[in-house]
Amino acid sequence: MRVLVFGCGGAGKTNMVREISGKGENEFYELASLDGFPLSDAQVKERIADLMRECERGFHVGIHVVRQGRITEAVCTEYEVVRAILPSLAVICIVTYCENEEPMHKWVQDYSAHFLKCGLRYALMSGTCFAEGEGRYKLIMDKLRATSATTVRQCLSRTSNHGIEKYVHTPRLEQDLVRYVLKKRRPPVFIGPRK
Fold first, then answer.
1. Between 20 and 30 A from 144 (CA), which of 27, 40, 45, 129?
2. Which residues pair with 67 in a beta bridge?
3. How far apart are CA 40 and CA 30, in angstroms?
4. What is the pLDDT of residues 159-172, one digit of tens each?
């Protein structure tokens, strides 16, 4: 199964993919975030072009990785770009850094309405932790990462019945998306709950 992984910088995309990709049954494509301020206009254009090329091959499911407490305009922009290219793609929301919640999905339950208010609609949502611990916290964090990896695999399994969605490239959409992302780039603006 081809899986598109996207989200803002620092959300935990790479840690999540590293933790769940060991078995080889899924092929992950991690979209480099579009929200970084050091990014030049040319780099944004290149990242969108790369995404569109990958979308021509198609994806079965998307995973939107969102850091707990950070429903920002950049989070919404990343989601809107993917939806513009693949409007019918089943997207799972994985909220990271939920290690202080008991159970980990509590924050998702408490704040799922805020995602809907922002126009973010998902097939499934779950709270997770892919952070690494040191010292006396290492064993605790290892267990939370293993539990989180199982949770993500279960979410993928539950959405695996969706067919592959492909994008037929149109230069106009690519130009429109580049303009849209460049217009939206500015310092983070928090529009949802913030802990």
1. 27
2. 96
3. 20
4. 987 778 888 777 78
Q: What does the domain layout of the chain look like in residue ranges?
A: 2-181
Residue with tokens 């040191």: 134
Contact in structure between 120 and 76 (CB atoms under 8 Å): yes
How does pLDDT run across 55-105, given as a tens digit for each residue?
A: 888 999 999 999 998 788 889 989 999 999 999 999 999 999 999 889 999
In this structure, the chain runs to a length of 195
What the block records as the tokens of 5 is: 């992984």
Contacts of 106-115 with C-beta under 8 Å, sequence gap 24+, read 107/68, 107/69, 107/195, 110/193, 111/71, 111/192, 111/193, 114/71, 114/192, 114/193, 115/71, 115/192
Judge whether 5 and 30 are in contact, CB under 8 Å: yes
The pair of structure tokens assigned to 99 is 């290690």
- For domain 2-181, the CATH superfamily is P-loop containing nucleotide triphosphate hydrolases (3.40.50.300)
* Residue type for position 127: G
pTM to 2 decimal places: 0.88
The residues near 129 (Cβ < 8 Å, ≥ 6 apart) are 96, 97, 98, 99, 104, 141, 144, 145, 147, 148
DSSP strands (E only) in 54-158:
61-67, 90-96, 124-127
